[in-house]
Amino acid sequence: MNVGPAHYAVLSAILFVIGLVGVSARRNVLAALASLSVLFSAPVVAAVGYAESGGGSIPRLGDALALFTLAALCAELLVGGAVAALLWRRAETADLDELAELDA
Length: 104
Hints:
Blueprint: H1 5-25, H2 29-52, H3 61-91, H4 96-100
């Protein structure tokens, strides 16, 4: 079986939908951050898939793009986790609905 760009696009769309449903359905801050990382990994899969099946005009462009995207994703998760920990210390809850009602 030959894997082409359409297969990567379908896998990327599936990851995007799983992440989107996870972010909208989760009530816990850390679970929403985990779903957000799945959501942000979908374009990485698409970029690497298209770069690898593109014929090699610019080799390893998809890998370099994936590296920068994953570095940004790690930074986003670290900052989001730190903010979630600070909110949890202040409000003593990790529920997103209760955090939305929190006064500043």
